[in-house]
Sequence to fold (553 residues):
Amino acid sequence: MPEVSPHEPPTRATPATGAGPGADTDTDVIVVGNGPVGAALAVLLAGRGRRVTVLERRRRPYTLPRATSFDGETARLLADCGTGAELGRITEPASGYQWRTAGGETLLDIAFRTEGPYGWPDANTMHQPALEELLAARAAELPGVTIERGRQVVGIQERGDRVAVTAEDQDETARTYTARWVVGCDGANSFVRHHLDVPVTDLGFSYEWLLCDVELREPGEFVPTNVQICDPARPTTLVGSGPGHRRWEFMRLPGERAAELNREETAWRLLAPYGVTPDTARLLRSTTYIFQARWAEQWRAGRVLLAGDAAHLMPPFAGQGMCSGIRDAVNLAWKLDLVLGGLAPDSLLDTYTEERRTQVRESILSSVQLGRVICVTDPTAAAERDATILAGRRGRGPAVPDPAKPLAQGLLYRGEGDSPVSPAGEVVPQGRVRGTEGGGLFDDVVGRGFVLLLAEGADADLGEERSEFLAGLGTHVVRLLPEDGTPRAGAVADVEGVHRAFLARYGADAVLVRPDHHVYGAASGAGAAAVLVDGLRAALDAAVPAGAGGSGG
Fold:
């Protein structure tokens, strides 16, 4: 049985300078766009030994924030990129999120935990340029990443088992790059999406807001960190955006001229009631933007894929825009790695759209629903809204955030009869464990990639063939011991009981977890682990022609 191994992601790829699948192309994967999503994807692939070329149209890093926070699940995924040790330096945990009426009554109250179920704070505020600097520093450590700035992609042509991408510099000098796969992470106005000409569902829900990013001259206390003021006279958002930074957003009112709203003096006038003046803060930016609610119906066409804002856009009220993009990158990275390595057919990439589009659609619909409650400017309608919500929450205290959204379909094992109590698709929680070399968060101690969790007394007889299959995937096989158990090779003490409790909740002896931390499946009884391994092997082999080693590499 494979032993617990170090925390670095498994590297099984052909080295960047070696021969093998993809060596006759300039790179394995071209990523178009170097925002957080594109940067995370590049780092995740290069961390697995893949050659990645990032083509970014901007000549220099963008120094203004867009997103202001990410949730605990996303923090875990960013830690998978190798930035975990530095995340605490550039973030501040948010204390909570409240919706308030114009009179200050609480409509919604969510308390954020500093240690959530995924090993990180429930909500982490950040200054986005600082996050991008972390990802850039990580990319610089990886020899497989090449970032070419000032390159505007102007053409994409699929040529059998590869793709040719043409990009121009500022002088319109063109260069063509070849890769096995191309991923468009090039934002809302994505060239890649327009090139693919895929259908897009647009819910037609949009409002214009004035966004004001400020840097505080002195530290201030804001409790809770994030507040939504549901005032029909001017719906307003107040959120943290990392150490020393905050954001205010003000909705444009019916009949109000956008040009009048989008003026610096207007920004200072609207900020003044909150004690934000030129004496107390520096205005980094004030600009209007129009949020949208839409998603591409198709995220893959041949060897070209979409991720992040190129694939979906959503209102900001649930704080899931960038989080969704990072989930895209993590879902796609391990699947591209398996395909490039000949360990899975390229049809595995179809599960990327299947899994992520469903999740994103739910997030967008939820964000729209929240927006319909917030963006009310009619006083009578607002009063009715307030009365209804206040009556419904009378006597209730603060809530905690919902768990991460599970996968509803895709590469999952639900066992006989698709039992409704199966954890397949859920994000496995993360607690602290103790291994032979010390303790820490599970991912850091045990390792990242596929993980086979075994109950203390579970049958672990997999046989040579199954063990070789797991080893080929870089799987970490780990037995869970009680808190006071003595760690050994292949076994860790579950210090906080988080993982043993998860298995017990479903009566499972074995749980197989995917590299994106979603549960592939669970099983119990004799041979439980073998059943899961056989299921995964069959799923990965399903579309591979006889005698072939995979069609994507």
